[in-house]
Structure formats: structure tokens, C-alpha cells
Amino acid sequence: MIADRKITSTEEKNSNETLLALFEDKVLLTVPEVAKILRIGRTKAYELVRDDIIPSIRLGKHIRVPLVSLKKWLQIQVNSDIQ
Predict the structure, then answer these.
(1) C-beta separation of 55 from 48 below 8 A
(2) Domain Helix-turn-helix: where (predicted)?
């Protein structure tokens, strides 16, 4: 039997970096891809984009999140948690 254990912030950061690496060849991400990277629901990801919490661009009817912007946003979140 495997004991339940709490995931540390370091493990979560490494896991998120691994997910980011999967999308490294893309310049723009879809909102569902962002949700997968952040390990949140698709609806929550759309909410964060809608509220301009996660930077995004609109291409016609499509919403895209620049990978560079997502990385910067994540770094800001990590830095604010440390302080």
C-alpha cells in the first residue's frame, strides 16, 4: 500500500517545468494547453484569461497565450510566493 503524501512546492515546480517543456516548440498555447500546464480546470483557465490575470491575445475568435508570457507570469507567481 502506498501512503498518501503531500506534494512539495519543489516537486510541483519541477512537474510544471516538465509540462512546459512539452510545449516548448510552440509560440502560442491554447487555453486548454495552459490549463494542462497549470493543472487547473479548463473553465478556471478561461476565467483567468478573461479576467486578464493570465496574459493572452485574441486572433479572431481564438484565444492564445504566448508561451513567453505564461513563463513570465509563472515566475512572478513563484517570486510573490517566496516573499
Answers:
(1) no
(2) 28-75
pLDDT tens digits along 37-82: 999 999 999 999 999 999 999 999 999 999 999 999 999 988 887 7
Q: What whole-number distance in Å separates Cα of residue 71 and Cα of residue 83?
A: 19
Please give the single-letter amino acid code of residue 32.
P
Residue 80 to residue 72: CA distance in whole angstroms: 12
Domains of the chain: 13-82 (1.10.10)
Distance CA 18, CA 48 (A): 22
